[in-house]
Design a protein that fits this description.
Length: about 500
């Protein structure tokens, strides 16, 4: 048998060294494949995230990634390029647009921020442009609150954004005192004004309810007769056709002759003159009848004139005419400093404004967005209110013979409402000295206010016409009206 030699100590050490080297190499290989995220610092993470956000134009969403950083947003860059005036106006317009979108129910709460912003602008001496004022007035108009409108207009005046609100108050002539109708107020010892008052025509009467009812009755009778003529054969009423034809003929003839008598006479005279050589002598010598000689005053319009006026109210729709009256009301209110922009003024709104103006403070204003009102419980205040109420009447009378769109009864209703309030309302007791004492004084007051309204509109015809044209377009808002009145 061959004898095996045992390894020496030197050989054993060499083997152990080789095994240790292989183990170390293996461990290093394993560590080389471990993910580096476990040892990445926070700053490294931010650098990685930043590099992902700014990958460059090769990325499909590179534009959105660039805008992800607030400091580099295009909106901020553009906004920072604006001056303070444009910044304030942009924010004000946006806030008001939000109020308008919210509707009338939320308008009061929504106006808190725009009003505060206007106060801040006034404090910093920054004026706003027309765009911001138009938006603010449109938003305020949703509240239908005269005190909030007064607050906004006062802020706009202090901001020097509007210059013509109330600028014509000094042009109104106070009503004079006369011996026949002595007012406890008014312009004393002015003979010219007294003569003018005595020469003024009365305020036109308006009985549209009666006119419309008579027109409806007339139309019903004529319509029933025509129905019998057309459908009577189906129901065995042929015998009534003679009577219905007589009724229709007499009714229509009476209305035509009564209301168009002058036109018929003039037309007949012209035809007779053109054919004078063909007419017999007996006809040539005949003279046209006179209104005074006609039975039942036919030809004067007193018999059936209300029927024609009622039919005109029922059948006539004149948008231009309506807009002219609305423009007159808006112009009168704005130029006389009344914070009410009703396109169709009425006695109830006018009386409420006067009563509210007598209160020193608003009843409920926890958010301090209501302003103060000038006390209208005076001769000057009531005259301004009556001019506002009668401005549509003055406008319509200057252009048309009959009142269709305006209502002169609102002015007298305004006085009557204030008389009732003066007796029953503790705030309105001061009205007793300012209101007319009797019907004669009330008529003088109405005639003077109508004349002043007519004078106000005639002296500013161009701007009132421009306002009526804008309203006729159908898209003008209260803010747009203010822009026209300010001539922006």
């Amino acid at each position: 048998m061959t004898k095996m030699h045992s390894p020496s100590n030197t050989q054993r050490c060499a083997v152990l060294c080789r095994i240790l080297a292989v183990f170390i190499i293996s461990c290093c290989g394993v560590l080389a494949f471990v993910s580096p995220t476990t040892s990445t610092s926070a700053s490294a993470k931010q650098r990685i995230r930043s590099s992902m956000l700014f990958e460059g134009p090769s990325s499909a969403n590179s534009g959105e990634m660039v805008l992800a950083r607030d400091g580099d947003r295009l909106l901020n860059v553009a906004f920072s390029a604006l001056d303070d005036r444009d910044k304030y106006e942009t924010v004000l317009t946006g806030l008001c647009a939000k109020v308008i979108d919210g509707g009338a129910s939320n308008a009061k709460d929504g106006l808190v921020d725009p009003i505060r912003l206007m106060e801040e602008m006034n404090g910093n001496g920054i004026t706003t442009g027309p765009r911001g004022i138009i938006s603010l007035i449109d938003a305020t108009a949703l509240t239908s609150d005269a005190r909030i409108m007064a607050k906004v207009l006062t802020l706009a005046i202090r901001n020097q954004s509007i210059l013509r609100y109330g600028n014509l108050q000094g042009s109104v002539n106070p009503i004079p005192q006369s011996s026949a109708s002595a007012f406890p107020f008014g312009n004393r010892n002015n003979n010219n004004d007294i003569e003018r008052l005595q020469s003024l025509p009365p305020v036109p009467e308006d009985d549209r309810a009666s006119e419309v009812s008579q027109a409806v009755l007339f139309s019903g009778i004529v319509g029933a007769c025509l129905a019998v003529n057309v459908f009577g054969g189906l129901f065995g009423m042929e015998d009534l056709t003679l009577l219905t034809n007589l009724i229709v003929g007499v009714a229509v003839t009476t209305v035509i002759v009564d209301n168009f008598f002058d036109a018929i006479v003039m037309g007949g005279s012209a035809v007779a003159k053109m054919n004078e050589d063909k007419l017999p002598d007996t006809v040539k010598n005949m003279s046209a009848p006179q209104k005074e000689d006609m039975p039942l005053e036919i030809g004067t319009g007193s018999l059936t004139g209300s029927v024609v006026r009622g039919l005109s109210r029922l059948l006539n729709v004149n948008t231009e005419r309506d807009c002219q009256c609305e423009a007159a009301a808006v112009f009168a209110a704005y130029s006389l400093g009344l914070p009410c922009f009703a396109f169709q003024p009425n006695a109830l709104e006018g009386a409420s404004l006067v009563i509210d103006s007598m209160r020193s403070k608003p009843s409920e204003d926890t958010q301090n967005i209501q302003g103060s009102l000038d006390n209208l419980a005076s001769d000057a205040g009531l005259l301004k209110m009556l001019i506002w109420l009668l401005a549509p009447v003055a406008m319509e009378l200057s252009k048309y013979p009959q009142l269709m769109s305006s209502d002169p009864r609102e002015a007298l209703g305004f006085i009557n409402r204030l008389n009732d309030q003066a007796r029953n309302n503790q705030y309105a007791s001061a009205l007793v000295d300012a209101l007319p004492e009797n019907e004669e004084q009330a008529n003088d007051y109405l005639r003077w206010a109508l004349a002043e309204a007519d004078l106000l509109l005639r002296n500013n015809k161009s701007i009132v016409d421009a306002l009526s044209k804008a309203l006729a377009g159908g898209a003008a808002t209260v803010g747009d009206c203010v822009a026209i009145l300010e001539e922006w």
